[in-house]
């Protein structure tokens, strides 16, 4: 942390910020004061941080910045959902989505420009992979959203529970672009800031990491920073999951379910959320529901059924509403807790899996993939 390099304060987790301040001879409370100015009040100019000592401010001005990624575009949906497109340089862009509800305001954050997992139902997966985001770029999305929402009192009130009316974003889900557990270290730094009382102060239950099933990193997260965990299951057997979530070939279902059980020993909630995308004629038959019930017996879990959000190249279709209802009912009849995700913000392409952003596929991963539209194995019509 020395030398001429400019440090972005948004990228320093609580321990690193304290270390930087200590290196300048400052006490830990200085770091906490700075953290509050930056993360809680959203101030980015050190000269405005009036209760910081003059010499401390001078050092900060000489060596540091507070810088969120540059904004490319902002969109607002008729239902109050907001989407920000951030420029990640070299032709890459990522997206962040705010979803206001009566009792909470949820921010959906991206962790990578692109994704290497390449699920055939996900538009991020179609774009290949460019790079991991830094802690500053991940936290920058939250910092920016909080600031933008504070400037828009109507939106802030919409999203915040009464006891937290000062805080527009009450929940964070790592469900934007990218696989958070394949960018572990940078995501961990960001999570620590989200939880830190002197930064965003969110409880572990209000921060959710969603993963396609990176088993070794699920174990590390359990040790390092156990927040709420959502697992993108999408298929009840290995044969189908190998195709829908290609990472399953490396970490098959048995291994994944064992990891979920180990995680539960540390988790802030006593269940894992299993996400299950509803794809017409692919994974939505009664037989899949039956197999899913067997899977669910092995892990304490809740199901979140996600109606597929179509995008042009996928060649896939959303299960009809009646099929989703019946599928859900099968699970409920077996005693499982099931919610069906409401589609929000689809008029601004902000719904799950539509987060296109723009990615320079530096790894050329898309060229190496087989024609993923062929995933539609049986085109079965449901009545
Ligand atoms: N990579 C992580 C987190 C980002 S994706 C993961 O896969 O879990 C967040 C959620 O959106 C996942 O459950 C994913 O399966 C779902 N999703 C992706 N594409 C979608 C689409 N087209 N329609 C609906 N949900 C989608
Ligand atoms: Fe990556 Fe998640 Fe999309 Fe799969 S669903 S390609 S893991 S972002």
Automatic annotation (TrEMBL):
It is an enzyme of class 2 (transferase). One of its GO terms (biological process) is rRNA base methylation. [4Fe-4S] cluster binds at residues 115, 119, 122. Residues 101-347 form the Radical SAM core domain. Keywords: 4Fe-4S, Cytoplasm, Disulfide bond, Iron, Iron-sulfur, Metal-binding, Methyltransferase, rRNA processing, S-adenosyl-L-methionine, Transferase, tRNA processing. PANTHER family: 23S RRNA METHYLTRANSFERASE, RADICAL SAM CORE DOMAIN-CONTAINING PROTEIN. This is Dual-specificity RNA methyltransferase RlmN.
